[in-house]
Amino acid sequence: xxxxxxxxxxxxxxxxxxxxxxxxxxxxxxxxxxxxxxxxxxxxxxxxxxxxxxxxxxxxxxxxxxxxxxxxxxxxxxxxxxxxxxxxxxxxxxxxxxxxxxxxxxxxxxxxxxxxxxxxxxxxxxxxxxxxxxxxxxxxxxxxxxxxxxxxxxxxxxxxxxxxxxxxxxxxxxxxxxxxxxxxxxxxxxxxxxxxxxxxxxxxxxxxxxxxxxxxxxxxxxxxxxxxxxxxxxxxxxxxxxxxxxxxxxx
Length: 251
Prior knowledge:
By secondary structure, the chain is α/β, with parallel strands linked by helices. The protein is built from seven helices and ten strands.
């Protein structure tokens, strides 16, 4: 894993966006299109702002997927990840296609199979991900399933994960946070040719430390990123604050 530590969230966002744009461009040059996974959440704001402001990305040649969505939440809800992605990506740059997870589908299992079939048709070129305060990757809370080959699965959200969503301001009360979500699986994320993990803020510092310093384990889902041959972790000074020593740094 390559670790890049920038001073501020804005610098982190810009550095990650530059690498993301390059990865998309390389895929398009190689095969005429790019397949991309997009992350959501407050930690991705600066990154997505910088990426969608770039003028040299051939967005009509980009097919996109997203990592996760709450079960039972309509797209009109302020916390809906479909709404987030439409507002922060689709309406800004108009990619060729975006394969949304319908969290309020009649049957969540059937929806998992539908989007799983779509994402399995061709390899993913680059995945944008974050790391949760509890170390989760997508909505794979600890202990995460490292073994399933299903591309998407229904997961229960643990208390720490639900508190994070409340703390970020997406919900008014803890009891309003859904108890389940449809999440991309760990193995599906690892199938991406390249992974960019964008992780700012002091509230992520403990998870970052554990991800990098402790053994790879389902109890620390994001630690699995260390096994991927082309993962770059983008940190700011706050999220890197608890690292025992600064890893290899660029920028």
